[in-house]
Amino acid sequence: MLSPDHWQTIRDLVAWIDSNNGRSEHEIAMRIMKITEEAGEVASAYIGMTGQNPRKGVTHTIEDVQDELCDVILTAAVALASLSDDPAGVLNAKITRVAGRAAAVEATR
After folding, report:
1. Structural domain that includes position 61
2. What gap in Å lies between CA 18 and CA 14, rounded to an integer?
């Protein structure tokens, strides 16, 4: 879970991006699309970690994959904070709903 300090840093990043790029509908769309770009980098790092591409071999480490996953989380948090006045509340509500669904499934086993 992101701490209040993390959310403050994310709000600061949003303000910095806003000051450079504005906050038009197009800009918000770009922030959302950036999540997909970052997810692709996770996939690439994982492929590189497993050596799945025989032409390239092993090119990445687990730490590279972890770093790219953090980029996805941070990019998504920036996009969320660009769309919501309470991104922490939105995320916490989502986590609670998903945990509740998981608990309900587990209770039926």
Report:
1. 4-107
2. 6
